[in-house]
Amino acid sequence: MPPENLFDESADDTRSAIMEATYHALVEHGYAGLSIQRIADEFDKSKSLLYHHYDGKDELLVDFLEFVLGDLHQQAMVPRDAPADEQLRSFFGGTDPAEPERSDEFVGVFVELRAQAVQCDDYQRLITRTDEYIREYLAAIIEDGIEEGSFREVDPDRTATFLVSVLDAVLLRRTTTDDPELAWDVLAELDDYLETRLYRDD
Amino acid sequence: MPPENLFDESADDTRSAIMEATYHALVEHGYAGLSIQRIADEFDKSKSLLYHHYDGKDELLVDFLEFVLGDLHQQAMVPRDAPADEQLRSFFGGTDPAEPERSDEFVGVFVELRAQAVQCDDYQRLITRTDEYIREYLAAIIEDGIEEGSFREVDPDRTATFLVSVLDAVLLRRTTTDDPELAWDVLAELDDYLETRLYRDD
To answer: Is B27 helix (H, G, I), strand (E, B) or coil?
Structure first.
């Protein structure tokens, strides 16, 4: 199931409706099995409308990645008005594997699209931009924490890069192995890392 | 470029020759662009020989993944006769991004295949087995270190799972973003994590 509200406007917005059809086709057939016809099968308007908006599958999928990443930006961001350690905890709370069935389908689509960045520069550009965006967001929280005196004086950028990377690994583990619950272990160890390296004792 | 010796026996071994042709076709066209014809184009024997050994592309690729993972097992393993901290350092030394051009082509192929595990149970089974293998290997090193007295009394399994996950993230970052050198930051932070959480001071 995709995150709530992702396709909310689909009723009256053609792009959202195309994005929703693409999402369902990706879940059903995977990236490698995707075709315009299979997207059209999930789409309640005409196939020619797809070609009216996009030159082909590749252009449509780059737009889909852009759409999904735009939503991830929003999902990942928590209000900046709480103490820094609470902000960090709610950020990683969002990756709580307690409801894997609900979110892993969506994460799986994202993992498959991300792997396309190995071959495709357009994907790589979008993945890099999103990575940068989340790293900057986390670095800002870490800077706040240092200023507040609740965090140790770490390198905010390097720590943020590490945190995003561990998050990437959690998503990859949850969707590509038979032991997705080991993602819990990774998050628990990350928490201990934060306690030891980042949070001040008092 | 693939790791040295990966296709050494290709001269007189049909399976290795098919694996080498598959590797080059994957680097050239990516997973999504792969076909038996494109593998045959890289193969100096007849296309019918491919069909003699494999029912089709999917069966061939599962065997390719098995071949690559078997090699990764060997590559990743360092001799177990050194002190535990040296063993751990040489394990992660193997992911040194100093020569990215040489190894990233190979890592990219692996990242693309891993993402197929989102959709395909055969891939998921192989990825899980490799993950398990490397986690057990690292947990054994950590147990040695605790016994030697050079490591703190951490949970070996949980720590090993965390380490493998950070390694996954490094490989993903190197091949799917425009900032592969940030992988250095992740490894540097991992080193500080090990100093703080695992290695004893003295």
So the answer is: helix
